[in-house]
Every structure is written in C-alpha cells, then in structure tokens.
Amino acid sequence: LAAGRLAAHRARGTLGAIGATRAAALAADAERRAEGSDAAGFAQNGLALLQELTLLKARLAERRARHTEEQ
What we know:
This protein is an all-alpha fold. It is built from three helices and no strands.
C-alpha cells in the first residue's frame, strides 16, 4: 500500500492543480485509505478514481475537438 499511497498523493496534487476537484477528492480518499492500511477500501476507491479519470479524459478530448474546430 505504500506505493499506492504515494501514487494517490501525487495524483491528488496534480488533479487539484488542474481543477479536477472530484478526482482530487477521490485521490485524497485513496491516500487516506492506504495510510490506514485499508486495502479493500483503497481498491474500491481506486476503481472510482479510474472511472472519474476516464470521464475527465473524455471531457478533455471533447473540449480539444471543439477548440480545433473553432480554429
């Protein structure tokens, strides 16, 4: 869980910096679960974070496509 905690910590900072607040909150929760040695909770939270990142990626791709069309 130590590596997962570090990854969640880094993700929290990066996601917060770009304004992805829901994803950052999920990463913060994953970090807390890893610190508390809650492997099952960490795994469950990781799935929720993966889903949120997938949605974020799709939204960014849509915005990029719209921006490209406007130019």
